[in-house]
User: Which sequence fits this backbone?
């Protein structure tokens, strides 16, 4: 662990202390969890995020059973307006 010092507003300090009391954990634990949530714990690089998102392309079908709407949306819009 790295020791650091921060300044919180009165409101922030009250909310952090209240969260720590509710969960029966330390104030430091609440702050570390907030930092992780805000910065994204183990934030993935863009390539990894793109690969994860790409796995969903075509994974679901629309009401008509089409599974390529995400790739061919312009074609389907063109057909709809003819």
Assistant:
């Amino acid at each position: 662990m790295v020791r650091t010092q921060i300044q919180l507003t009165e409101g922030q300090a009250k909310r952090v202390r209240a969260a720590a009391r509710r969960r029966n954990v330390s104030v430091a634990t609440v702050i570390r969890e907030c930092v992780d949530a805000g910065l994204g714990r183990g934030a993935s690089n863009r390539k990894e995020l793109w690969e994860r998102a790409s796995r969903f392309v075509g994974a679901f079908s629309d009401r008509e059973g089409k599974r390529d709407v995400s790739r061919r949306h312009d074609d389907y819009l063109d057909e709809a307006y003819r």
User: Anything to note?
Assistant: Residues 47-80 form one domain. The chain is about 60% helix and 0% strand. The radius of gyration is 23 Å.
